[in-house]
Amino acid sequence: MKNRTDLSRRNFLIGTGVLAGSAALASMLPTRSAFAAEKELVILAWAGHAEPDIVADFEREHGVKVRAKYYTGGDNMLGLISQSPPGTFDLILSDAEYVQQLKAADYIERLDPADYPFDDYFPEFQHFPGHWDGNQLYSVLIRFGFLGIAYNTQLVPEAKVRSYSAFWDDSLKGKVGHFDWHLPNLGQLSLYTGNKQPYDIDAAHWQAVQKKVMSLRPQIGGFFDYGGTFSSLKNGQIHAMCGIGDWITGVLQRAGAPVKTVIPEEGGLQWSESYCIARNARSPELAKKFIQYITSPQGQVKSAKMLAYPALIPSQRGWALLNQVDPAEAKRQGMLLGQRNVMDDIREGRIHYRQLPVQQGLEEWNDFWSEYKGA
Description:
By secondary structure, the protein is an alpha/beta fold. The protein is built from 16 helices and twelve strands. The protein has helices at residues 9-16, 22-27, 52-62, 74-82, 99-104, 123-126, 182-192, 203-216, 226-234, 246-254, 284-295, 297-304, 316-325, 327-333, 342-347, 362-374; strands at 40-46, 65-71, 91-95, 132-133, 136-137, 140-152, 176-179, 220-224, 240-245, 259-262, 268-277, 351-353. Strands 1, 2, 3, 6, 7, 8, 9, 10, 11 and 12 form a ten-stranded mixed sheet that branches. Strands 4-5 form a two-stranded antiparallel sheet. Helix 3 links the parallel strand 1 (40-46) and strand 2 (65-71). Helix 12 (297-304) crosses helix 13. It starts with 8 loop residues before the first helix and ends with a helix. It comes from Pseudomonas knackmussii (strain DSM 6978 / CCUG 54928 / LMG 23759 / B13). Residues 1-36 form the signal peptide. Its main location: periplasm. Keywords: Periplasm, Signal, Transport.
């Protein structure tokens, strides 16, 4: 088995292909002046994390401006960092599975655990995998969500989507879609193939996953980016979607669309987002204060209800406040107090952390995904 975290900065970048297109990436980078460092916080993040519903109170409290460069995936994130001058970013929002790669590439600083409210967190999230190296902390989990089967409730009965086998149903031919990222899709279909550890599979099981996935290709009506996933579910072009969860269907529900995400009997995946302080950050103290802000109960409620895409939150005090100020949203997302909630799904083993492949290279999974799309 290869150790996927023992990587030099350059070898990792070459291995994942993020050095490609360097000129294009460099042209997209934000610029900042030295005198502005104490008056602004620059974040590299998924879309939505620097919008007014999230940052306005922080900006007002500290008299600063939060600016962001938004990325569209982990490889894009790494490429943007690799092509940016030192000090371009203060905070890096990372999907949890990329934190060890950020650490290996020396892109992030070690954090002091005492600075953050881990005592507020559910025990499962206090020492989150990949965020620590022994007792040394490198990233703080702020939000998470589950990936299962997203479907149109007017066109597909819930009984049909209790298993990933629904994707092969004749009635859905040409109506199944993929969110165009290999990690969530192949992880889900690895679960369906019978792998209890969907990302830690040997060569034989990897071959079986590829065979099963290829058999799905005639059912597929499209591969969609963020915006395309929204529109194809909303307009009925796609009836069932693989690779996403409530982070998209929750936004559509707010707009009245008849969509929902369910965790099928084979289980689901957990996506997780965390903040790291960038190496050579111009405003490291401000970055620390922002993590403290977003992990406070008030910040956690903002994160749970983020307009761009909702999420579950790891803070028990955040849950309590959400149930107080917006009980309907707490119920919709399953963050209920004193009754069955999403933590039961985790504790019962129905949810598996999304991660990078363990026994294959990330590029091998990516190459297969490209082959599958072109088949």
